[in-house]
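Input/output pair, single chain:
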Amino acid sequence: MLTSSLLALVASLSTTSAAALQGFNYGSTFTNGAPKMQSDFQSEFSTAKNLVGASGFTSARVYTTVQAGTANSPIQAIPAAIAEGTTLLLGMWASGGDVQFANEIQALKTAISTFGSAFGSSVIGISVGSEDLYRNSPIGIAGHAGIGANPDTLTNYMTQVRNAIAGTALSGVPVGHVDTWTAWVNGSNNGVIAASDFIGMDAYPYFQNTEANSIQNGKQVFFNAYYNTTAVSGGKPVWITETGWPVSGPTENQAVANTQNAKQFWDDVACDVLGKINTFWYTLQDAAPNTPSPSFGLIGSTLTTTPLYDLTCPAPGSSSSSASSSMVSTTAGPDSTASASTASSVGASVAASDNAGVTSVAGSGPIVVGGGSSGAGGSVSAPGTTMVTEVPVSMTVYTTQQVTVTSCGSSISNCPLSVLMTTYPVSTTVYMSGATTVVGGGAGGSAPASVVTSVAVAPNVTLSTGSPSAPASTFTGGAAVAVGSIGGALGVVLAIMAAL
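Output:
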C-alpha cells in the first residue's frame, strides 16, 4: 500500500489571497526571432496590468536570464520589470549544456551587480530550466520535443545558482524547476523535487490527447494533473507555471481550439486558482508578428488591453460558475491568522463549521468516513448508516484519492496540518471536536463505499451542527441530504449541493 508521509499542506497548496502571484509567460524574442528590448517588455508588462476584465497581473515569468542576441548580457526584462513594478520568476535555460548555463550564471551575476537591491526586490523565484525532464522523457522524445537535461544536471545547476546568489541582493530567493506534471510524477526525477524550493507545474489538457480532453473535461483533467503533482511534491509549494487553452490551432483528440473554449477554460481554471495559487498563465500574447499554431494568446498580434474573449470571472451562483464548482476554496479556521490556508478539492470537499475540530477536509473522488467512539476505525454495518462520535475524538477518512486537513480547532492540541495522498483505499486520522455524525463502509471501515457517487457531479459538501430527525437519505444529484442522529443524540446536517 503506497502512502505519502503526513505533510504540512499549507505551503504546497496555498498562498494567501493577497500574496498569490499572478502573471504571464514571456518569451525573449518575437515570433519572427527579433529580440525583445526593454521598451517591448515594459509595454507587455503594462498591458498585462491593465487588461480589461482582469486585474492583479503584476508578475512575469521569463525562460532565460540572457538577453536575446547576446552571449551573456542580462535580459532586458529585468530593468523593464523594475520600471513597471512587476515581479519576476526568473528563468535560466538549462538544456543548452554547461557552456550555455555558464552564460546564464554570468548574466545573473551581472544583473545583481548592475541593478542591486531593486533587482533583489523584483525577483520572487528562480527557475532552473523549463520542461527539461519532459524533453528527455519517452513522451518528449516521441513528440520530438527537443534537447532536455537529466536530473543530476539540473540539481548541479541549482547548486551553482544558490552559490551565485549567496550573500547578494538575491540571497534567500527560492530556487526551483519548472516541468510538465508528467515529469514530476516520474519517480526517477525525485532528486529534482528534493533540490527545489518550489515546484513549477505545466499542464495543458488540450495536449493530453490520449484521454478524454474535451473542454467539458478540461477542468477535471487540469486539476487531476495539479493534485498528482502535489501528491509527489514532498510538501514543496506547487506553482502553476503554464496552462491555458488555445484560441486557434488543430484539434487534439477531443480538444477544439477556439475563443469560446479558451473562455470556458479561463472561467473553469483561471477563475478558480487566481489569487489562491501562484499562477503564470500561458499566455498574454504569442502572435506578434506571426501567429503560431496553436496560438494561446489572450490578445492577437497587436498589443492591446482588450482581450480576444471576456476575462471577467462569473459571479458565484451564476449559471456559468455553478456549472463547474470551485475546486480550490480558501478556508480560514477559528485560529487562523491573516495567512489563511487554501483547501483544494476535486470532486468533493468537506468544510466543517468554525467551531468544529477540522476546518477543512478535501479530496478528489468518493470520500467515505468511518470510526467508533474510540476513533480507531469502528464497525459500520452497511454503507449509508450513521453513528455519532463523542468529543473530542478522531475519525478515519477513507478515500481512493487525496485527503487534506488544513487546520483544527483550538481545543485540539495534537492536530497535525496533514495530508494523505494515495491512489489506494487507505485511512488517516482526522481530529474532531464537537459531536460529529459520520458515515462509513463495511465492517471495521475496511471496505470503503461511496458517499458521493460521482466525481463528475462535483458536489460541495458542507457540515454544520443541528438536530435533524430524518435518517440519512440516498445522494442524488442536486439533493439535500440530512444525516440524522442515532438514539436521539446530537447529529450533524450534511448538506450535499451538487453544482449542476
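The CA atoms of residues 10 and 341 lie 6 Å apart. Residues 98-122 form the longest helix (25 residues).
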